[in-house]
Amino acid sequence: MSVSPAIGAASGAPESYDEHVSASACPACLAAPSAEQMAKSGDIKGARIMLSLPTAHCAVCITDVERELTRQPGVRSARVNLTLKRVSVDAEPGVEPAPLIAALDRIGYEAHELDAGMLSATETDKRGRDLLMRIGVAGFAMMNIMLLSIAVWSGAEAATRDLFHWISAAIALPTVIFAGQPFFISAWGALRGGRLGMDVPISLAIILASAISVFETIKHGHHAYFDAAVMLTFFLLVGRYLDYRTRAVARSAAEELAALEVPRATVLRDGAEVVVPVGELHPGDLIRVRPGGRIPADGEVTLGTSETDRSLLTGETLPVYVGPGAMLSAGEVNLTGPLTLRVTAAGKDSSLHRMADLVAMAESAKTKYTSLAERAARAYAPIVHLLSFTAFGVWMWLTGGDLRFAINISAAVLIITCPCALGLAVPAVVTAASGKLFRRGLLIKDGTALERLAEVDTVVFDKTGTLTMGTPKPENLGDLNAQDMAVAAALAAGSSHPLARALAEGAAAAGCTPATLDDLREVPGYGVEGRWQGQIVRLGRADWIGATAGNSTATHLKIGTGAPITLRFADSLRPGAEVAVAALIAQGKRVLLVSGDVEGAVAALAQRLGISEWHAGALPQEKAALVTQLTGQGARVLMVGDGLNDTAALAAAHVSVSPASALDAARTASDIVLLGQDLSPVADAVKIAVQARRRIKENFGISILYNAVAVPIALIGLATPLAAALAMSASSITVSLNSLRLK
Amino acid sequence: MSVLSYLIPISLFLGGIGLAAFFWSLKARQYEDPKGDGERILSDEYDDHPKP
Known about the structure:
The structure holds two protein chains of two kinds. By secondary structure, chain A is an alpha+beta fold. Chain A contains 29 helices and 26 strands. Chain A has a domain at 472-572: 3-Layer(aba) Sandwich (Calcium-transporting ATPase, cytoplasmic domain N). By secondary structure, chain B is an all-alpha fold. Chain B has one domain. The radius of gyration of chain B is 18 Å and the shape is elongated. Chain B starts with a helix and ends in a 12-residue tail after the last helix.
C-alpha cells in the first residue's frame, strides 16, 4: 500500500480538468464549454464517464441502467459491464456525472463516479490479455502433444515414436519459450536478487524437462516429457492468471473511485473567479467556497459566515459555526453561506497531507505480512532443489556414472514436485472468495487481506459515516403541532443545510403541507428567517433563536415571541450496521466503538448496537494508538472507518475496511472497500475469509499428499511421463474443485 | 501408417484454427464481461434486430 495516490488525488488534478483551466477568465465561459473547447474535444470523441454500480446483478439491471442513461441529454451510449459492476457512458463533451448518478438513483440504482483519469490503465488490460494469450497457446500445444503422447504410451515403436517425439518437440519448444516467459522473467529476477522464489524450481523444471526430452528424442529414447513441460506451463499460467485477475480487478476499482477531495478550487484573481487545480494553490490566494462545497486547502475566513461539517475530519456530527477569522482545514464541507478564504497552507503543508504523513508512519510501523503462499514457497523451493540434486548424485553413484540416467531421474523429480497444485492452491481459493465477496459488495484490494481477515479477533468501528450514514434524521417531529410543523417545514425549505433538508423531508413524510411565508431569507451561519401571519419566525442556531444549546445535534424553531422549540436530530444508522455488529459479536469477536464525536451520541449508539466498549472524543492519534495498543496485547484488529481521522488507525490495523463514501486517503489506507451502503457484508467477509483460509490449507495438504506418493516413485526411477502427466493433472483438478467448494 | 502423414497436419491445422479463433476473440474483447454477456441474452432488447 502506498500513500501517494491520496496525495496525488489531492494535489494533481486529472487531465480532464485541463480544459477548464486553460479557458478564459470569464466565469460564464467556465460554466458551459465554449465552442472552441467543443471543437478541441471533438477529436477525443466527447466525454467518457465511468460509474461504479455496486447493486447491479442481473439482466434487468443491465437493461434498466442502459435505457435510463441513454435517455439522459447528451448521452450517446452506455454499456454495463456486469463482471466489473460498472457502466461506461459515451457522452457529448460537457456532460457531468452528477446528473447521471441522480438519474440512476431515481430508478433505484446506487452509483459512484469513477476517476476518468485512471481509466486508461485498466481498460487496456494488456497484462491480463497477454497472460490469456499465453494460456491459449499453452493449451493448444498441450492438447496436440497429448494426442501424440497417448499414441506413444499406447505402444508406438521405433520410427513412429521418434516421429511423434520430433513433432512434439516442434510444437513444445516454441510454446515453452513463448508461454513460459512470465516464469523465466520472474525467476531470473529472483535469482539476481539472491532469492529462491516459487518461480525458480518452476523454470528449472520446464527448461530441464524440455532439454532432456530433446536429448532423448535425438538419442531415440523411450521417454520424452514434452507433454509434462507444456502441461506445467499451462496449469501454472492458469494459476498466475487467476492471481493477476483478482488483484487487477480489485485494485483498479478501488483506485478509480473518484476522489472526494475537490481537485479544483475557485480562486479570486483581480476580482475575477478562476478555476484552478488544487495543486496550483499558494498560501495567500483568496479562494471562494460555495455552500455544499468542500474546502480545498487550509485557510482563514476573510468574508462570509456559514457552518461547516467536520465529520469526515473529526467525527463530530454537530456543524460548526464559522465567521471571519475562523481557521478551516481542507476537507471540511461548507454548509450554508458562501465563504471567502485566504489560503494559509496548501499542498504539502496542508492538514490533509499531515494526515497522510501520519498514515505513512503507521504503515512503516506495520510488520510486513507473509502470506501463506510465500511461506509455502520459502519452505518448498529449497526442498525441491535438494531432492533433485540428491537424486542426481545418488543415481550417479549407483549406476557408476550414467549421466543420462541420473539427469533423467533428477528431471523427473523436478517435474513431479513442480508446484502445479501449489501454484493453483492459493489463487484459485482467493479468486473464488473475492468473487463471492465482490458479489456482496466488498472489494479486496490485496490478496493477503483475505488471509489477514481470517485471523481477526477484534473489530474496531468508527461511528460517523461508518456505523451511521452521517446524515441526520429528525427525532422529535411528533412533539410539534400541525401548525408549528407547517411553519418549520416552510422555513426548512428555504435552506440547503443538511438539518433543514432532513427536517423538510421528515415533515413531508409526515404528510405536512408547508405554510406560506413572506420575506423568507437565509442568514448564513445562523438559520432561516421569514414572516408568517405578521410574526417573525426563525429556524436555526440556539444562540440566534435565544434557546439554550444542548449537546446533541439540534435546531430550534421560534414563532413570534413564543418559547423556542428544540428539534433534535439523530444520525441515521447505516443499513446492515445492526446485523453486522450482532453477527460479529455472535462470532465471538471483541467489538469496540471509537469516535471523535461527543460522549452522549457515542454512548447512545453503542447501547443501541450492543457494543459494551466505546471511546468518545478520540483524536486521530488516539485512534491509531488504541489500535496499536490492542495489537500490542496480541489482538488482530479489523478497523472499519471512513474519515480522515480514521486513516492512521486504518493503516495501523491488521486489516481494514472502509466504505466507498469514505475519503480518498481512508480508502487508500484500507485493504477492503465496501462498495454499497449496506454494512452487513463485513460480518460475512470475516466468515468467508476463515473458510477461504481453511480451503487454502486443505489445498496445500492435497499437494503435499500427492508429492508424498509421487516423489518416492520418481526417486527410485519408476516415474514415466504417463505417471507424471496423470499425477499432475489429477492434483491440479482436485485443488481447483476444492476451491470451488467455498460457500 | 501412411495415414499419419496427412492426419497429423490436419489435426495441427484444425487446432491452429481454434487457436486463431481464440486470438480473435481475445482481440475483440470478448472476455471483458463474461457475466454480463451471459445475462444479456435474457433481455428482450435487440431480439428482432442486432444493435446498430
